[in-house]
Amino acid sequence: MSILLPLPDETATAALAEEVAAVLAPGDLVTLSGDLGAGKTAFARALIRHLAGADQEVPSPTFTLVQVYDTAVGPIWHFDLYRLTAADEVLELGWDEARQGIILVEWADRLGPMMPSDRLDVALDFGATPDSRVARLTGFGTWAGPGDGDAPSARLALSGDAQA
Known about the structure:
This protein has three helices and eight strands; from the N terminus they run E-H-E-H-E-E-H-E-E-E-E. By secondary structure, it is of the alpha/beta class. The protein has a single domain, classed as P-loop containing nucleotide triphosphate hydrolases (Rossmann fold, 3-Layer(aba) Sandwich). Strand 6 (119-126) and strand 7 (133-140) form a beta hairpin. Helix 1 packs across helix 2 (40-52).
């Protein structure tokens, strides 16, 4: 099961990102999916700023493919894999080293068989209004709640609609 959360505007998206950031620790992976413009980078930017400081510059890693940020809880590695043509190309970007920190991955489907089994998936879809979005959070491995299939674990105290 997943949790669906309506996000009426970018402020709500940022608030959700901050809630996720508050429970992250080294070794955690958060994948971000959604169409172009759905808010993946806005979510990542808010999460990173919550941990690295509000003044932290957070450019999209679309062209650099990865950006690393130092925080009090450890490094955050922000990957954008949109331009990868093969999953193993992520190794050249420092993937093995990144696994020791916190990882955010946009376009994580590009990982293919390299996708870690322990992760929180955040899928962002467009909502009913131009500024609104709907977030679907799905936990896998250590992020899955006990007995709840793939609903996010109790690490996240979120309330939303549970969806199969």
